[in-house]
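Sample log: Protein jagunal homolog 1.
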Amino acid sequence: VASRGGPRAAGTDGSDFQHRERVASHYQMSVTLKSEIKKLIYTHVVLWLLLLAQMVVGHLKLLPHDQVAMPYQWEYPYLLSILPSLLGLLSFPRNNISYLVLSMISTGLFSMAPLIYGAMEMFPMAQQLYRHGKAYRFIFGFSAVSVMYLVVVVAAQVHGWQLYYSKKLLDSWFTSTQEKKKK
């Protein structure tokens, strides 16, 4: 055994301790996945705020209807999609598995389901726009159905990746829990 200032043990350069200083892979993965999910949640909050602004402007008639159209029906239940994101953020500090599971389930109910309904609700108007070139609702000069389909596509990707990373994070937390039980 080498002392602090004395000679080293034969056959070692003093760096043989480094293998013990590595962070376990599931802890590294947990930190990385939390970071990715936070980025997706912040992106979702930006989309959510844009939809909320469109709804407020449409209902309060702050701008004429040729500038900002009234919201589609799917936008109202989509406003609840902020709840799963908050649950996800609440699950991070203490690796709370139950909050993360609730976040994943409610993401399906309050985020993905309204987006699917929205795609179906707007489909006839999208057909009319692309077959006949007629649009009746506008958002700052653009066809409202085109803008909202873009929002639906981006939001579906954000929530899809959020679910994917949440599942991987859940698996990482279960790995950590299983290793603690073995000790």
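Observation: The first strand starts at residue 138 and ends at 139.
Observation: Residues 1 and 10 are 9 Å apart (CA to CA).
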